[in-house]
Each structure stands twice: as C-alpha cells, then as structure tokens.
Amino acid sequence: MNNNYVFNRLLTTLNLHRNHELIEQIFKLGCNQAPITKSLIKAWRLDDTQNRLYRAMPNKSLIAFFDGLQEASKREIIDINADVEI
C-alpha cells in the first residue's frame, strides 16, 4: 500500500474526491508548502505506476494532508466523525 492508495481511499471515504478546492484548503491547513493543483491531486489519486499521469505522493504531502484534515475537523470545515456505512 503506497501513499497514493491511502490518499485516494481517504478522499473517497470522506466524500472529498470531487471537491478540489476543499482538498487544496486542507493541504494549506496542514502547512503544505508546495503548490497543490487540480492536476497534481488527480495524479496523486492514481495507483497505477504505468499510467503516464501517475506521480508518487511524497510522505511530507500525505502527512500535511492528515494534519490538514485534523485542523479542518477542529474548525468544523469538514466532519470526519460522521457515520460511514460500510
């Protein structure tokens, strides 16, 4: 399991996969220094290394995303404690 897989599963589970603006905001809240674009988010969601658009997500970026999720939850921008049906 790599960072791209974890990132994609989080976006899908939290129903954030189509809201690129919110994803960018979450990265900013997590103190991510690199610019986050819609195309970069799409590339990080890919798990197939053979895809020409694939880009490996760095550990620092995934950590920033987790930190941003926590901060967004504290500020009630998103609700990660909502009931999720499995």
Descriptive account of the structure:
The protein is mainly alpha-helical and 86 residues long. 52% of the residues lie in helices and 0% in strands. It has four helices and no strands. Helix 2 packs across helix 4 (59-74). The longest helix is centred in the C-terminal third of the chain and has 16 residues, at 59-74. The mean pLDDT is 92.
Largest sheet: none
Instruction: List unreliable stretches of 5+ residues.
Output: none
Instruction: Give the proportion of residues in helices.
Output: 40-55%
> What value does the average pLDDT take?
92
What's the short version?
The chain has helices spanning 3-13, 20-29, 38-45, 59-74.
Provide the fold topology.
Blueprint: H1 3-13, H2 20-29, H3 38-45, H4 59-74
Helix pairs in contact: 2-4
